[in-house]
Amino acid sequence: MTDDGRPLPPTGRSLPSIGGPLPSTERPLPSGEQPPPLPGQPLPFTGRHVELERLRGGLRRPGCRGVVITGEGGVGKSRLVVEFADEAAAHHRTVRLPVSEAAAHVPLAAFAPHLTGPALPGELGRHFQELRHLLTAPAGRPRTLLLVDDIHHLDDSSLTLLSALATDAATAPAPGFFLVATLPRGADWPEALRALWHQDAVEHLRVGPFDRATTARLLADTLGAPVTAPAVRALWEAGRGNALWTREILRAAVREGTLRPVDDVWCLTGPLDDTLLDAPAEGRFRGLPEDRRTLLRLLALCGPLGLADALARVTPEALAALEEEDLVVVTEDDRRSRVQLAHPWHALLLRRGTPRLLARSLLLEQAGRVREYGARRRGDALSLARWELDATGTADPDLLVRAAGHALDDGDVDTMCRLARAALARGPHVVAGLLLGEGLGQRGEFTESIPVLERAFAEARTPGEVESAAAALSQHHLYGLGDAPAALGVLDRAAGRIGARPVLTACRAGLLSAAGRNDEAAGVLALAEGADPKPGGDGGAWTQADVLLLQAHLRVRLAAGRVDEAVRTGRHAYAVQSGLADRWTAYYPARSLYLVAAALLESGRLDEAERTALEGQEAMRDAVPALTVWFAWVRGRIALERGLVTDALAHFREARALARLCGQPFAEQRALAGLVLAAAQTGRVAPEAEALPPAPALVPPHASEAVGPRPPHVPGADGPGPVPPPYSPLCQVDTLRAHGWVRLLRGADGPARELMVGAARAALARGEATVATALLHDVLRWGPRGSREGAGAVAAELAAATALVQGSLAEVRAAHAAAVAPADGPDPAALEAVAERMGALGLHLYAAEAFGEAAGAWRRRDRAASAARAAARALALRGRCQEAATPALAGAAAAVPLSARERDIALMAARGSTSREIAETYVLSVRTVENHLGRIYRKLGVSGRADLADVLLA
């Protein structure tokens, strides 16, 4: 705040380590619900199980007399002691010493509550005997716990007494006490503790901050619902993994509405800047010398500074003192020493306490210093523009546009919008319009972004400006409004002005592919087998147009089934785009990575797909709103293929919440479809199924020339075998699959198959082999309906479709089709071989289903033991699939002829438990266990424990 109470102007990316907001903070949330207040209770005890086990181990070790826990303030040392003491209270007497800094100079203050008379330093002998009696455990009882939080605040007399008690306890015949003490990181150890540590009588347990994964669990446990990845990242970076800081930031964010639930997923709806803390740390700055306080204010306003700039303000000794007081940190960044504030919220407090005129003076002075250096470093333009805009409300338009481009490179959408809008306030500027339009679209503000881009398109003069404006405008029409004709119309208008251009070609191909017209998209690209576009710039340099062409090739190949080529093309696009200086036509390199992850998934390379998705999330320096949705979506797809249906539901819910939050209807529908599809594979219809866009109406093939020649009708499917017309961008394969599964679960088996098979045929006719194989494989997974001829026809169509698709996933789908195709019924041995291959790829749900099918096939051949073995394998794999419940799994449980008790015993034996251990667990005799195991072996057709493990734990 200024001296007159007014807030300072915004400073753009004032807290780069915290991360920017996802959506615009000016738009109301879709849910319209107020979040519940965060209860003023301690955070759940999470992420300290290793440390807790260390304490348990020390207590069990006879020679260990205690554990000293160290760590920075707020990491949870005291909470760890409390949890340990509460756990041990059932068997151990507990004595706590009340220690405080205020009582540190009062002799024996900590022991006083445990003494019958006054605590007098001159009577240490009497006090020793009394405390010795208190801490000595009765005969036959375990050691007493002595808990001392912040032991460094004990006075000298108390430390002397404690040392004497510890020495006596080590030699006394009766059980002594076990000391658990805490110390801040860097504090001097009391000599008594140091001596015990040298004797290996106490252990040293260091407690550090939480990592991001632990913070994610902590947040979800605290809020009682999932938290989006961008929100987790922002809160973790703001709190630095410190439990106390995280708690305070979390409470403030919930209280202010910066963190709130959207569709039962907690999302960050704005920057954390104004909600971090009502921190009581301002007093730390008031007592500082003026030069040091001025440096801190400069760091708060400008962000990290070079070491030379900092030393221009203070002496080396003063800077070292600030570092020692944990107010600044010095880091190495690109071989340059930089100084920054140690804690993000210090910047907030300092900015609020800086008078406006002083802030203006400091900003302009620092801008002048950077200009004197020549402003040649990467990011100098962004810094100058922000500082001058903060100080004066305006800046040079060309500087603002260059700075907005740097913000784009950093994925900082809000700063990009602010700078581009400021440039446009000075007059028309095509590139500023492009950047502002892109940023608004990322925030879902398409009603504003499209007019902005229309103006930029109208004002564009050069071919490069025209094609860039057309590219952005067409994308917004398709993905923002779902209007494919309007999107293609923009490209036609652009071609009428500048003729055929590579950017227009790439955009047209991408739009056609997204609209389900992949064969047309391939024709536009004149797609050659295995060939990638070549550099189109002067001297063989790569350009933004080349990136868009590579991305178009990636999309078309992914849809066409050439998924291994798509992976290579996508990685190439990412590498090229990452090296470009200008990206105001081809934005965000990470965009290629979610498509690469999807291609890897379709290739059956699930581990690579997951790593690539995580790489893409980390590649975004800030959370680019729309892209965060797609990475959550593709991780949901990966989890679903693994059979981790609960994880898939969580990812899809996160993707949907993020999409709603940042106004991305196309992405929202894809996430919604994924959610419904994942829920269906748990055997239930999600309530969200009612929000699915309608399935395309089925029409005869002759009603639309776009459908192409009609493939053979599938016997056993209801009706004459119609196919869907071209579907809209909001009715993608996920939506079709979701509709099919929902119809199946509602008992409409025939219409479900009709929809899926018809859609697969239409997809093949339009060059979408990847889509067709997914649809047909789902139908195959549902099992036969009607005649064997019908099942064989589906298998034949799937085999034909998979022949067009690269990768291991297509290969196992083809093998699955071949295994169920024989006229006399599925081949159980072939199904088991397919299941093994699926399991090796990590496709555990598919593998479980194939084993379940094999069990049914063995039963029909009167091979009961083989059926039981296959069914047991199915159930074992199903155990890896969370809550999966699909038709192919339904009969597997019935095929395992084990009682509940026999199954429990079998699992323990398979995992290596001895008969005696099993007997002790279930309170049985060893002989009874052996009898159970004998019956289990006979029922499952195995000869012993090793075979049992192969069947149940494969």
Protein described:
By secondary structure, this protein is mainly alpha-helical. Helix content is about 60%, strand content about 5%. Helix 29 packs antiparallel against helix 30 (about 665-680) and helix 31 packs antiparallel against helix 32. The longest helix has 19 residues, at about 465-480. The model is unreliable at about 1-35 and about 700-725 (pLDDT under 50).
How are the secondary structure elements laid out?
Blueprint (H helix, E strand, L loop, with lengths): L48 H12 L5 E6 L5 H12 L5 E4 L26 H12 L8 E5 L7 H16 L5 E8 L6 H8 L3 E5 L5 H12 L5 H11 L3 H14 L2 E4 L2 E4 L13 H5 L3 H13 L2 E2 H5 L4 H9 L3 E5 L4 E5 L2 H9 L3 H18 L6 H13 L4 H13 L3 H13 L4 H13 L3 H14 L3 H19 L2 H15 L3 H13 L3 H8 L18 H17 L2 H16 L11 H13 L3 H14 L5 H18 L2 H17 L3 H16 L52 H13 L3 H17 L3 H13 L6 H15 L5 H13 L7 H13 L3 H17 L3 H15 L8 H4 L1 H4 L4 H11 L4 H8 L3 H15 L4 H8 L2
Helix pairs in contact: 3-4, 6-7, 7-8, 10-13, 10-14, 14-15, 15-16, 16-17, 17-18, 18-19, 18-20, 19-20, 20-21, 20-22, 21-22, 22-23, 22-24, 23-24, 24-25, 24-26, 25-26, 26-27, 26-28, 27-28, 28-29, 28-30, 29-30, 30-31, 31-32, 32-33, 33-34, 34-35, 35-36, 36-37, 37-38, 41-43, 41-44, 42-43
